[in-house]
Amino acid sequence: MRRLTLAFLTYCVMGGTAAVAQISGGVVRIGIATDYSGIFAGLSGPGGRVAARMAIDDFGGKVAGVPVELVAADHQNKADIGSAIVRRWYDEDGVDLVMDVPNSSVALAVQAIARERRKLVVYAGSGTADLTGKACMPTGFQWVWDTYSVAASTARAILEEKLRKWYVIAADYSFGQAMAADLTKVVETQGGTVLGVTKHPVNTPDFSSFILQAQATGSDVIALANGGADMINAVKQFAEFGGNAGGPKLAGMAVFISDVHGIGLESAQGLILTTGFYWDRTEETRAWSKRFHQLHGAMPTMAQAGVYSAVTHYLKAVEALGTDDPEKIAAKMRETKVNDIFAKDGFIREDGRMVHDMYLVQVKPPKEVQYPWDYYRILRTIPAMDTVRPLAESQCPLVTK
Prior knowledge:
By secondary structure, the chain is of the alpha/beta class.
């Protein structure tokens, strides 16, 4: 009997050791690469770290029998700094998953490193569609939005109002360039005209000359293909030039609820935009968002909610397989539907895009607001497949046409 007991105990211990051995280093480590003090700090930044911590805590702090650790760093919106951080994380610090990466130039640099090392990376804050286009890879996922999804959805809605003449003010880097190109294609395909595109440097404080130039063209719509502080400054200055009192409409292509909060409803009212998440949409989103607010002091943006969703989905895959092998985990994430506070029946396409419903919303006027952060009126739900570029148009080498 003693021999049988010893044999059984040895089997249990060895079996448990073997299971843990499938997790490299005996720990699952997640890295949040984000912007802590720059133009994207509000839409992602510290709030992304809070959302990731919530996902880990909701999972019990452990997965597959090992602890889950969270590390974070500020990429300062510089591709070289972001690359150095992620390279060190992958090569020296044992980071299994890199998350968030707002700023498309940094994201594309990180994608190249992850591809070389066959490591996992999920983008929540970055919007360049190239991440699931010509720069796609098997272990890279774009979770929340891209330039196509917000440009196409918002433009189609405004074009339905017979506003055909457009002028675009775009940030002069990969994100703004991609969004301007996507927007131009949608507008022209739907029978509209883009009268001009003006590009501006990142962190532009004064948009007056750009706005005056756009107004002088006689356009029906001025579209902002920028984000963060640049977009906020442009909207505020548009209102200062009397834009809300008449003349062309202002359309924000990449607007987050943190932006609306920063702009103020007096200037932002009437703005139409597309979002992947709104905190006040359902009982489930309200309950989670109120928890987030207690920790962060603000309601979550779609990027921050997306971080929570992606980390949760990743941990579910690790738990199911008992390994942190990047390629096996990526395959498991692809084959499993996404169901959480962010998405219902979401799924990952072969190009790495997580496909989910989005929402066309309009910023309320101040007189309609009933409680703090009651900013949006949901105009309609945009079905998942209407928010993504058709695979037939994809430049992703993983796509079979």
